[in-house]
Amino acid sequence: MRRSLAAVVVAIAGGFALTIGPAIAQSFPDKPVRFVVPFPAGGGNEITARALGEGMTKDLGQQVIIEIKPGAGTIIGTEFALKSPPDGYTILMSSFAHIVNPTLQKKLPYDHKNVAHVAMIGRYSNVVVVNPDRPFKTMAELIAHARANPGQLNYGSFGNGSSPHFFPEMLKYMAKLDITHIPYKGASPAIIDLLGGRLDMVFSTSASAQSHIRSGKLRHLAVTSGTRSTFFPDVPTIAEQGVPGYDAVAFYGVLAPGGTPPAIVARLSQSIQLAAKSELFQRRSKEDGIELDLGGPEKLADFMKGEEVRWRKVIEASGIKAD
User: Fold this and answer.
1) According to DSSP H, which parts of 120-162 are helical?
2) What class does CATH assign to 127-241?
3) What is the C-alpha separation between 94 and 251, in angstroms, rounded?
């Protein structure tokens, strides 16, 4: 009798487990979803999140609210998001900083391995931009100038751990250059100082530099990817201009707190990818230089794992520090 009763309990529990996932997915969401951007306002992360949020709001039937929580090289916003309840109502815009911070920072206030990968959105190369008043008109000329004047050039980044921080550090390491890093709190102040002539260069996202390139207020010298960008086909790569093997790309993805139910992760992933296929997002992604590379949790997890290994080697070999 006891064995029979136990078998019945196990069967009921098994049936409940099989039905609970779809039930959760069907009822989710029943309130607004917070989409945390761990960078200051005005940059590509916010622009991308807002474009996705618009499409997700239509699909989910609930408002997707963008929350800007910058600071400490994405650590403040990331901690807030990943320590939120794992119920699907808080998601995080993931980017290059989440790949390098586990190596760059001695200790993080959150477990970077305890996350739910939700969706891969796309990849993009950065573009090296300078003030037109500077004497160099090509990346090769800039590198030659840096070698002839060690310690005299500087570059501005969007904060420690951002791609505009690490991409020039990779250049310094590979080309053996002495260039000073000046970190800013986001894209806008760095670009403002570049326009004002207080910086020599920025390895900028396309979203932050595109309008200034078009107006002639900034000059673009190179793209950071190993092959030419489809958005800047006439702009040579850094590898083409004297640094063979140089290849650096960033990405956009979405994470959620570890322990978020798989059914909810699947629903969010579906909504994000649907939003990314919309005409609005496609148009904005082209304007911002994002090469769409859509995929679900497994694709994002595999990409982040591979990039973390690759950049750990660069950080350790070059001795890059969080300034």
Assistant:
1) 139-148
2) alpha beta
3) 8
Q: Reduce the DSSP state of residue 121 to 3 states and report it.
A: strand
E strands along 13-162, which residues?
Answer: 33-37, 64-68, 90-94, 115-125, 127-130, 154-157
For the domain with range 31-124+250-318, which CATH number is right: 3.40.50.300, 3.30.1390.10, 3.40.190.150, 3.60.40.10?
A: 3.40.190.150
**Of 39, 72, 74, 100, whose CA–CA distance to 320 is shortest?**
100
Question: Average of pLDDT values for 178-203?
Answer: 94
Distances (CA, A) of 295 to 25, 38, 48, 122: 19, 22, 16, 9
Identify which of 239, 166, 256 has the alpha carbon closest to the alpha carbon of residue 203: 166
Given its phi and psi angles, is residue 75 left (phi above 0), alpha (psi -120 to 50 degrees) or beta? alpha
In this prediction, residues 206-228 reach a mean pLDDT of 93
What pLDDT shows up at residue 5? 53
> CA nearest 131: which of 58, 62, 190, 217?
217
What's at 179, amino acid-wise? I
> What would the pLDDT profile of 296-310 be if each residue is shown by its tens digit?
999 999 999 999 999
Cα–Cα distance for residue pair 133/90, rounded to 1 Å:
45
